[in-house]
Amino acid sequence: MRMYDIIEKKRDGHELIIDEIKFFIDGYCSGNIPDYQASALLMAIFIRGLNKRETADLTNIMADSGDKVDLSSISGVKVDKHSTGGVGDKTTLVVAPVAAACGVPVAKMSGKGLGHTGGTIDKLESIPGFRTSLGIDEFLANVREIGLSIASQTGNLAPADKKLYALRDVTATVNNISLIASSIMSKKIASGADSIVLDVKTGSGAFMKTFEDSVALAKTMIDIGESLGRRTSALITDMDLPLGNAVGNSMEVIEAIDTLKGKGPSDLRKLSVELAARMLQGAGKGSYDRCVEMAEKSIIDGSALKKLTELIERQNGNTNVIDDYSIFGESKHVYEYKANCDGYIASIRTDSLGIASMILGAGRENKDSIIDYSAGIMLEKKTYDKVSKGDVVARFYTNNKKSIDNAAQILDSSITISNDNLQMRPLILAYID
Ligand code: URA
């Protein structure tokens, strides 16, 4: 078999057989196939596409390229939840304890944030002492004993995807539905859950900007999951505005704790309960209505908050943060970003808000950047809110005073204030299974 022939076949729009996909992935990972040939094939795939079978084969081969987590020592149906990435999306910190409190074991491997989107691991690491780097035995023992563990992805989980993603990133081949779906699902399959609930974001802060593309991505991931024997469903949710009000690591943890205390923002609570209910349903806990009721009850009776406390304790974090938010530490500089006219906020480009927060220190510009956990943006007003000139729209928190002007300029060009009070679009746009 020759890489040249595989590139030519896909370039001319033909279907690749499994052996050809395997030859490509094995050869690229071992270094026998050079970057320039892998790039040529990626571009041919980007233009010509992959069908369902090719996408599932690519996913499975990438999932098999490294370690696979064996969750068979944990009893019950193991359900994973994955968000395609957003701004202010701290749902895992709420959903995982809720699901675990309702008796569904959650063994979650998560990633760090990059670019304008945050990562669960960075948020958890803002809790003093919290360890996310766990050996597999410790990770599994925690799930067996307290029903919940959240750890950073091991370096060897779907390494083929890691290598290929880095190449896609520099060859303008990221934004293809088959490639995104196989990339995400290869890690989910290797993580070992029986059932997967996907939160596919749509809008200005998401990978997929339109509803139609988000549905297509969700359906492709569901097809992959089902064809590989995992019960998979997806919510399509709005990312034209950030979730909750906090964007930045420790501020987001505080907002998640507040939500588990029954005091958080209503959009965060609504989506978290919906995702948790879908996870409970995936684990066979009953009808949708019954699962919503169970998820709500775990917040009202405090059992989900208790589960988060157990998680923090188990992974060596300081559990006093639950009642004393000052332990997180505060930024040296706080800046009030104000409205420059009267009207209604018609839109705030969510990706720009994520970038502004990153510039203040909350995110990584490249993979070696160091995060300032207390930095970020707290929104006082969101899209659809009425504002008067001089009202505080957002508060910036940072330890780097110089970043404030830059962040303010980004917000200047990403907020539109109009005279019209626009119709709010629903947070949860669709459920697909
Ligand atoms: N997230 C991933 O893991 N892979 C992609 O290709 C895009 C988003």
Automatic annotation (TrEMBL):
<comment type="similarity">
    <text>Belongs to the thymidine/pyrimidine-nucleoside phosphorylase family.</text>
</comment>
<dbReference type="Pfam" id="PF07831">
    <property type="entry name" value="PYNP_C"/>
</dbReference>
<dbReference type="GO" id="GO:0047847">
    <property type="term" value="F:deoxyuridine phosphorylase activity"/>
</dbReference>
<dbReference type="InterPro" id="IPR018090">
    <property type="entry name" value="Pyrmidine_PPas_bac/euk"/>
</dbReference>
<dbReference type="InterPro" id="IPR017459">
    <property type="entry name" value="Glycosyl_Trfase_fam3_N_dom"/>
</dbReference>
<keyword id="KW-0328">Glycosyltransferase</keyword>
<dbReference type="InterPro" id="IPR035902">
    <property type="entry name" value="Nuc_phospho_transferase"/>
</dbReference>
<feature type="domain" description="Pyrimidine nucleoside phosphorylase C-terminal">
    <location>
        <begin position="344"/>
        <end position="418"/>
    </location>
</feature>
<dbReference type="GO" id="GO:0004850">
    <property type="term" value="F:uridine phosphorylase activity"/>
</dbReference>
<comment type="subunit">
    <text>Homodimer.</text>
</comment>
<keyword id="KW-0808">Transferase</keyword>
<dbReference type="InterPro" id="IPR013102">
    <property type="entry name" value="PYNP_C"/>
</dbReference>
<dbReference type="InterPro" id="IPR000053">
    <property type="entry name" value="Thymidine/pyrmidine_PPase"/>
</dbReference>
<dbReference type="GO" id="GO:0006213">
    <property type="term" value="P:pyrimidine nucleoside metabolic process"/>
</dbReference>
<dbReference type="Pfam" id="PF02885">
    <property type="entry name" value="Glycos_trans_3N"/>
</dbReference>
<dbReference type="InterPro" id="IPR000312">
    <property type="entry name" value="Glycosyl_Trfase_fam3"/>
</dbReference>
<dbReference type="GO" id="GO:0005829">
    <property type="term" value="C:cytosol"/>
</dbReference>
<dbReference type="InterPro" id="IPR036566">
    <property type="entry name" value="PYNP-like_C_sf"/>
</dbReference>
<dbReference type="Pfam" id="PF00591">
    <property type="entry name" value="Glycos_transf_3"/>
</dbReference>
<comment type="function">
    <text>Catalyzes phosphorolysis of the pyrimidine nucleosides uridine, thymidine and 2'-deoxyuridine with the formation of the corresponding pyrimidine base and ribose-1-phosphate.</text>
</comment>
<dbReference type="InterPro" id="IPR036320">
    <property type="entry name" value="Glycosyl_Trfase_fam3_N_dom_sf"/>
</dbReference>
<protein>
    <recommendedName>
        <fullName>Pyrimidine-nucleoside phosphorylase</fullName>
        <ecNumber>2.4.2.2</ecNumber>
    </recommendedName>
</protein>
<dbReference type="GO" id="GO:0006206">
    <property type="term" value="P:pyrimidine nucleobase metabolic process"/>
</dbReference>
<dbReference type="GO" id="GO:0004645">
    <property type="term" value="F:1,4-alpha-oligoglucan phosphorylase activity"/>
</dbReference>
<dbReference type="GO" id="GO:0009032">
    <property type="term" value="F:thymidine phosphorylase activity"/>
</dbReference>
